[in-house]
Write a structure and sequence with these properties.
By secondary structure, the protein is of the alpha/beta class. It contains 5 helices and 8 strands. The N and C termini lie close together (8 Å).
C-alpha cells in the first residue's frame, strides 16, 4: 500500500510493527546541520515504527557534488541519536552508470542498541549478502526516473532482514522497487510518496 503524503507522519503504521525500514531520502541544497534538522522528524518516525529487533537501511549515493557527503553523515547521525547503531555497511556499485554520475551507493544497516543478533541467522550463511560490495547494473525506469534500486538488490535486503508476513516500510517510495520486492516475497509493504508524477508507475507496479 502506498500513502500519498509525507512520511514525516506515518500514522497508518503502528508503533514497533516494522521489521525493515529502507530509507533513501532526497537530496537538498542544505548544509549538514540544515539537512539534519529537516530529516529529524522523519527519522523519529522510522524509529517509532521499527520493531525491537528490526532493521533500518539508509541508502545514500557517494558524494559527486557539494553537500552529499554531509547529507550522508546527517542521515546516519539522525538515527544513531535515536538509539540505533551501525551493524553493517554495504556498497552498491553500478558499473554501467554514466561516468558523470556517482557509481556507488552506500547501504548503512542500523539496528536498535538493545536488539538481539539478527534473528534470521549468521550472515555467513547468506553467500550473496555477506559480500561487502554488491555489483549490479542500475535499472532503467519505464517512467523516466532513474533513482530506483534493481530488483535483485531490494529482494536481497528484504530476504535478509525479514520473514514472510512481516512488514517492510519505505518512507520515500520512489520507483517502488523495495515495496514490490516485499510483496513478491510474501511480506506486507507500506510506502510513502509525495510526487504525484509517480502514481501511475507505482500503482501499476504494485
Amino acid at each position: 500500500m502506498v500513502h500519498w503524503h509525507s512520511s514525516e507522519s506515518m500514522e497508518e503504521v503502528e508503533d514497533g510493527s516494522a521489521a525493515l525500514v529502507v530509507v533513501a531520502p532526497p537530496w537538498f541544497d542544505l548544509d549538514e546541520s540544515g539537512y539534519g534538522q529537516w530529516l529529524a522528524p522523519f527519522a523519529r518516525e522510522w524509529v517509532r515504527v521499527l520493531s525491537r529487533d528490526g532493521t533500518v537501511v539508509v541508502c545514500k549515493t557517494d558524494p559527486m557534488r557539494r553537500g552529499v557527503e554531509q547529507h550522508h553523515r546527517a542521515c546516519v547521525g539522525a538515527v544513531e541519536g535515536l538509539g540505533l547503531r551501525v551493524a553493517e555497511w554495504k556498497v552498491w556499485y553500478r558499473p554501467t552508470y554514466a561516468l558523470r554520475r556517482s557509481q556507488i551507493t552506500h547501504l548503512v544497516v542500523l539496528r536498535p542498541l538493545t536488539a538481539r543478533a539478527n534473528p534470521l541467522g549468521p550472515m555467513a550463511r547468506d553467500r550473496e549478502y555477506r559480500d561487502a560490495v554488491w555489483t549490479m547494473a542500475a535499472p532503467r525506469s519505464a517512467s523516466g526516473f532513474a533513482d530506483g534500486f534493481p530488483p535483485a538488490l531490494s529482494e536481497r535486503l528484504v530476504r535478509r532482514h525479514t520473514r514472510e508476513g512481516e512488514l517492510v516500510v519505505d518512507p520515500f517510495a520512489g520507483e517502488g522497487s523495495v515495496l514490490r520486492a516485499a510483496v513478491l516475497l510474501g511480506r506486507r509493504a507500506v510506502g510513502y510518496e509525495v510526487d504525484e508524477a509517480r502514481r501511475g508507475a507505482l500503482e501499476g507496479l504494485l
